[in-house]
Design goal:
The protein has 248 residues and is α/β, with parallel strands linked by helices. It folds into 2 domains: 61 residues, no CATH class; 148 residues, Alpha-Beta Complex (Transposase Inhibitor Protein From Tn5, Chain A, domain 1), CATH 3.90.350. It contains 8 helices and 6 strands; from the N terminus they run αααααββββααβαβ. Strands 1, 2, 3, 4, 5 and 6 form a 6-stranded mixed β-sheet that branches. The termini are far apart.
């Protein structure tokens, strides 16, 4: 049995929109984990959060771990609540600028099934490419200028795991490339804010015609082109030829 953790009323009121995604029995445990994660120094793990709360010797510690590995809750619902809170706080009107990029979480071990070898951007350079084993996450971030920082920050609001091709084939799942995941995430953001102009900023990896074509009816996508890209105006009609005349 987990001992109840007394939390400030203001904190519970601020956290309540997110707690609604959980069952009534799980909400106190989630609230306690949130406090421990905010106050923890070092890794944001369940064990460290319990240690910060003074619950390192709690006999019912397994209940806190079950929140992440067994309990049923909607991560998509939490992401929608977070996205709406960020937009209301930082971009109440005007275009919503969204950045899309993937990040590598270095993980090892036989139980990390979706992990694979990916390019490690933090350890690679122009002269050398370094790969690391881990999980690849694709994140959509709200790009805003944080007042106390004095520069633009990317605030994550919706993240999806991009499994490797080998893992999908071994587990009978359809493999989806990074561009397909980017399409799904950005269209989801558009559905959350149907009355707002969404501008997506991506790097050259997402400069795929099928992705840009799928996004064009709903939002503006800005990507980097190849250095040897050649852009032309549409070819003009031949003199005296109707544009709809069938060719022999």
């Amino acid at each position: 049995m987990v001992r109840p953790t007394v939390l400030p009323k203001r904190f519970v009121a601020w956290l309540w929109p997110y707690l609604e995604a959980f069952s009534g029995r799980t909400r106190p445990t989630v609230a306690a984990l949130t406090v421990g994660t905010v106050l923890a120094v070092g890794p944001r793990t369940v064990t460290n959060a319990l240690r910060t709360l003074g619950l390192a010797d709690e006999p019912g510690f397994a209940a806190f771990h079950r929140v992440l590995n067994r309990n049923a809750w909607s991560g998509l619902g939490l992401a929608r609540t977070l996205a709406r809170a960020l937009v209301a706080a930082f971009v109440p009107d005007g275009p919503i600028l969204v950045g899309v990029d993937h990040t590598l979480e270095r993980r090892r071990g036989p139980c990390i099934g979706p992990a694979s070898q990916y390019r490690d951007a933090a350890r690679s350079s122009k002269e050398q490419t370094v790969t690391s084993r881990g999980l690849r996450w694709l994140t959509t971030m709200l790009l805003v200028e944080v007042p106390f920082a004095g520069r633009i920050w990317g605030l994550p609001m919706l993240t999806a795991l991009v499994p490797s091709r080998s893992w999908c084939e071994a587990n009978g799942r359809r493999y989806r490339p990074t561009t397909a995941w980017a399409r799904a995430l950005l269209l989801r953001v558009h559905r959350w804010f149907p009355d707002r102009l969404v501008v997506a900023v991506m790097d050259g990896e997402f400069a795929a015609l099928d992705l840009l074509d799928a996004l064009s009816p709903y939002l503006i996508a800005v990507t980097r082109l190849r250095l040897d890209a050649r852009l032309f105006d549409p070819p003009s009609d031949r003199p005296g030829e109707h544009p709809n005349t069938p060719q022999g």
